[in-house]
Design a protein that fits this description.
- It is a single chain.
- The protein is of the alpha+beta class and 339 residues long.
- The chain has two domains: 83 residues, no CATH class; 159 residues, Histidine kinase-like ATPase, C-terminal domain (Heat Shock Protein 90).
- It contains eleven helices and seven strands.
- Strands 2-4-5-7-6 form a five-stranded mixed sheet, with helices on one face.
- It is elongated, with a radius of gyration of 35 Å.
Length: 339
C-alpha cells in the first residue's frame, strides 16, 4: 500500500481541511483573535488532520501488504484468505467477509465439478471395459480364424485396441495412485509382453526387435510400465524409415543409484525444434503432418504416468538417424533393506 497513492485517494479530505481552515481563520481575524492563539490553533488543527489521515493508513497498510504479498507467494491464490488475520478496521472487515463468501462459493462449485468429473470418469472407464469385451473377442477371432481376417483388418483391430487402452489410461492418470501398485518388477518380462503384443505390427513392418541384457528388477507397476513402453514402441513402428535394416533396440544401463531403460530406433527421427514439445498434450510436430495416425497423446500420457510412478522419461533424437527414449528408475535403498 503506497502512501502516495493513499494520499491521492484522500485528496478530497485535504480540500475539506483547507476550506474549513480558511473559514476558521476568517472567523479568528473577524474577532481580532491574538496571533499566538491563531498560530497555536492552526498547528493543532494541522496535527489533528495528519493524525486523522495517517492512523487509518497505518492500520490498513499491514493488512493490504500481507494480502498482496501472500497472493503473489501462493501457488493457489484463492487460498489467500487462510493466511490472513481478520482486520479490525471496517473496510477490511467488509473485504474479508467478501473474500470469505467468494471462497465459499468457489469451493462449493469446485466440489460440484469434481463430483461431475468423477462420475464422467467412472462412466468412461465402465464404457471402455464394456467395449473391450467385444473388441478382445474380435482380436481372438482374428488370431484363431486367420483365413477370415486379412492383415489390414487385424491391423485396424490392433490399432483400435491401442486407442481404447490409451483412453482408459488417460482417464485413470489423474487419479493414478488409486490404480497402480509399486513393487519389484522384472524388466525382461515387461519387455517380452510388449513385444508379443506388438509382434504382428513389428513383423508386418519388417522391423528387427532387438533386446539386449534386460534381466534387471526395478520398482514400478508392471501394468503401467507395459502401457508406457507400448506407446514408445508404437511410435517407433509408426515413424519407421523406408529402409531394409529397420530396428528397435531395447537395453538397460545399470548404475549405482538408478537403472535406465533405453528404447532406440533408427526411424525418421524428430526435428530439433520439436524435441522441446514432444511430451506436450496433443503435440504432433512435423512428423504428425505426414501421417494421419498421430494423435499427440501417447508420449503425453507416458510422461504423466512416469511422473506419477516416480520415474523420469527423456528423449533424444537426430532427424533421419535415430530416436532414443530413456526411462530412469531410482533405486530405493530402504526397500532393499526390508527385502
Amino acid at each position: 500500500m503506497k502512501i502516495g497513492a493513499y494520499f491521492k485517494d484522500n485528496l478530497y479530505k485535504l480540500f475539506v481541511f483547507v476550506f474549513c481552515y480558511i473559514i476558521n481563520l476568517l472567523i479568528f481575524l473577524a474577532f481580532k483573535v491574538n496571533k499566538a492563539v491563531i498560530l497555536s490553533s492552526s498547528f493543532l488543527y494541522l496535527v489533528c488532520f495528519l493524525l486523522v489521515l495517517l492512523i487509518p493508513y497505518f492500520k490498513k497498510k499491514n493488512f493490504y501488504k500481507d494480502l498482496l504479498f501472500n497472493i503473489e507467494a501462493l501457488d493457489r491464490s484463492y487460498l489467500v484468505l487462510e493466511t490472513l488475520t481478520k482486520p479490525e478496521f471496517y473496510e477490511g472487515k467488509l473485504l474479508y467477509q467478501a473474500l470469505y463468501e467468494i471462497n465459499k462459493s468457489m469451493n462449493e462449485n469446485v466440489r460440484k465439478l469434481e463430483h461431475h468429473l468423477q462420475d464422467f470418469k467412472e462412466y468412461i472407464e465402465m464404457w471402455i471395459h464394456e467395449v473391450k469385451i467385444p473388441l478382445s473377442t474380435l482380436v481372438l477371432m482374428s488370431n484363431n480364424h486367420k483365413e477370415q481376417f486379412d492383415k489390414k483388418t487385424k491391423l485396424q483391430l490392433k490399432r483400435l485396441e491401442d486407442y481404447v487402452d490409451q483412453v482408459l489410461y488417460y482417464a485413470r492418470s489423474e487419479n493414478a495412485e488409486k490404480d497402480y501398485l509399486i513393487k519389484e518388477t522384472n524388466l525382461s518380462k515387461v519387455i517380452k509382453n510388449v513385444g508379443l503384443k506388438n509382434m504382428d505390427e513389428i513383423l508386418e513392418n519388417k522391423i528387427d526387435y532387438i533386446v539386449g541384457k534386460v534381466d534387471y528388477n526395478v520398482l514400478t507397476d508392471s501394468k503401467w510400465l507395459e502401457f508406457i513402453l507400448g506407446q514408445i514402441i508404437n511410435n517407433s513402428i509408426k515413424y519407421k524409415r523406408d529402409i531394409k535394416n529397420s530396428y528397435i533396440k531395447i537395453s538397460v544401463r545399470e548404475e549405482q543409484e538408478m537403472t535406465t531403460l533405453i528404447i532406440e530406433d533408427n526411424g525418421i527421427g524428430i526435428k530439433e525444434l520439436d524435441l522441446l514439445q514432444v511430451f506436450d498434450k496433443s503435440f504432433t510436430g512435423e512428423n504428425g503432418r505426414h501421417t494421419n495416425q498421430s494423435t499427440g497423446m501417447g508420449l503425453f500420457i507416458a510422461k504423466n504416468m512416469c511422473e506419477k510412478l516416480g520415474h523420469k522419461i527423456d528423449i533424444e533424437s537426430k532427424e533421419n538417424e535415430y530416436t532414443r527414449v530413456f526411462i530412469t528408475f531410482a533405486k530405493n535403498k530402504y526397500y532393499d533393506v526390508l527385502k
